């Protein structure tokens, strides 16, 4: 017998199966199958909750295989992982195959885990609701009722409960506004610095809305040039441009009925903005190289770390597109503006790091949390996550993490009054120089050559500055010297 959380991965690429196995190993038992015949053998003898199937397989497509699965083994929730694929095959077969969600290649580990968790939760809810049963196919009405129950529960990791914060945090008001946004099918624009959790908020909005049973699709608009971004979002026909070797379904089509999250929307070009505006106005897309447009029903949630009103005033962002996207604006405050959130967020991060590193670190000493709360965290939650990973890696036991494990910049941050301009210009410059050199000395364990290279100085120049500023290096044994 298999475990109660079993995923069948059907993919002829062994490396792909192993990559998925490593990502899911902590929560799921993963069984691999190289083709449809091998997968059917597994299904005939094992209890499988989730099927994750590649579209391109030898012999037949993933859609064709999943159609048979729905007829013979209707209980498992069916997911498809896909990159370039024949859009007509997908569109024609999506309802018959009962595909719950698409996962686009290249997939991100956290999004893969989230999708499989959702599918496993849906499997359990179907059973609790009376089960699909071998005798009958799952009806769309039953699926909708299961999804409604799932929305009402607001699963951990997907809903607003996943946004960790203290009761008095300023983000609490943002969450309440976002909850109101779930009630209406309007576009949402989320602003805030990088690493503040804008995607997490977008996911919560989707999972709390009437579209929760449909896909949530993410695209980073700042990572691709215009032509590739258009292909990703709107799809393309074979031969539409150099490198378009097959038809490709666009993410707007994948998200049909659901939500698309357009991250870094402020990085897009004016020419792309025109095309996106047309999609939002007309509710239809035209794949590159296609003759006819296709209707889509997609809610757009976008995000940016730019001030789009300033960008509009400067002529870098279209005013009409801005008003289309910002029907319901939300701003996520930086971590520096909510230090009370650092202890609960750090505790949540540590639980995940413990799981990933197979450790059982017991938390943080009070002084460690005090110093963490006093730091500005310019990289926000992402920087906090990296810092905690580093601390766990450096710790020799599972006792609470002490302040000595913190990075130099957090143990001894540059005074905010210096940065703000206390003292005359000469004093401020010397204070900043001293702080930078101290941090470099700590990072390079007092190695003068490495410090000089890191700071772009000669050894002689560095020694002169250290002497002028009254700095001594600390050697690897902890003693100080002036050499």
From TrEMBL:
One of its GO terms (molecular function) is sequence-specific DNA binding. CDD domains: AAA. The modification 4-aspartylphosphate is found at residue 54. This is Sigma-54-dependent Fis family transcriptional regulator. It comes from the Bacteria. It comes from Rhodoplanes elegans. The lineage of its organism: Bacteria, Pseudomonadati, Pseudomonadota, Alphaproteobacteria, Hyphomicrobiales. Pfam families: AAA_lid_14, HTH_8, Response_reg, Sigma54_activat. Residues 164-393 form the Sigma-54 factor interaction domain. Residues 6-120 form the Response regulatory domain.
């Amino acid at each position: 017998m298999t475990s109660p959380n079993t995923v069948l991965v059907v993919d002829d690429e062994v490396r792909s199966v192993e990559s998925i196995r490593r990502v899911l190993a902590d929560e799921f038992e993963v069984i691999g199958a190289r083709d449809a015949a091998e997968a059917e053998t597994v299904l005939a003898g094992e209890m499988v909750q989730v099927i994750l199937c590649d579209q391109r397989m030898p012999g037949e497509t993933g859609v064709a295989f999943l159609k048979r699965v729905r007829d013979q083994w209707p209980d498992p929730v069916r997911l498809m992982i896909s990159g370039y694929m024949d859009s007509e095959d997908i569109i024609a077969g999506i309802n018959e195959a009962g595909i719950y969600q698409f996962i686009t290649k290249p997939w991100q580990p956290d999004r893969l885990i989230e999708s499989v968790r959702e599918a496993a939760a849906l499997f359990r809810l179907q059973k609790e609701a009376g089960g699909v049963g071998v005798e009958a196919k799952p009806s769309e009405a039953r699926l909708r009722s299961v999804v409604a129950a799932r929305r009402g529960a607001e699963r951990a990791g997907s809903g607003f409960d996943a946004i960790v914060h203290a009761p008095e945090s300023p983000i609490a008001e943002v969450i309440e506004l976002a909850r109101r946004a779930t009630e209406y099918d309007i576009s949402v624009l989320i602003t805030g610095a990088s690493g503040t959790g804008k995607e997490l908020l977008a996911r919560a909005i989707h999972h709390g809305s009437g579209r929760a049973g449909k896909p949530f699709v993410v695209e980073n608009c700042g990572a691709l040039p215009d032509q590739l971004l258009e292909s990703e979002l709107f799809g393309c026909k074979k031969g539409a441009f150099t490198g378009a070797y097959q038809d490709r379904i666009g993410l707007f089509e994948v998200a049909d009925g659901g939500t698309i999250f357009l991250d870094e929307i402020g990085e897009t070009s004016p020419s792309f903005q025109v095309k996106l505006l047309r999609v939002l106005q007309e509710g239809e897309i035209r794949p590159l190289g296609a003759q006819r447009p296709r209707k889509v029903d997609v809610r757009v949630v976008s995000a940016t770390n730019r001030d789009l009103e300033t960008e509009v005033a400067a002529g870098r962002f279209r005013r009409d597109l801005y008003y289309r996207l910002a029907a319901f604006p939300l701003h996520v405050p930086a971590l520096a503006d909510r230090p009370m959130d650092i202890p609960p967020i750090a505790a949540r991060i540590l639980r995940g790091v413990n799981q990933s590193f197979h450790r059982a670190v017991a938390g943080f000493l009070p002084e460690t949390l005090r110093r963490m709360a006093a730091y500005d965290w310019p990289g926000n939650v992402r920087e906090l996550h990296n810092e905690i990973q580093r601390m766990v890696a450096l710790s020799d036991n599972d006792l609470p993490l002490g302040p000595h494990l913190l990075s130099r910049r957090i143990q001894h941050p540059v005074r905010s009054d210096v940065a703000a301009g206390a003292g005359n210009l000469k004093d401020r410059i010397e204070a900043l120089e001293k702080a930078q050199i101290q941090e470099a000395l700590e990072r390079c364990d007092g190695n003068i050559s490495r410090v000089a290279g890191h700071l772009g100085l000669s050894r002689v120049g560095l020694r002169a500055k250290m002497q002028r500023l009254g700095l001594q290096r600390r050697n690897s044994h902890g003693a100080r010297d002036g050499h």
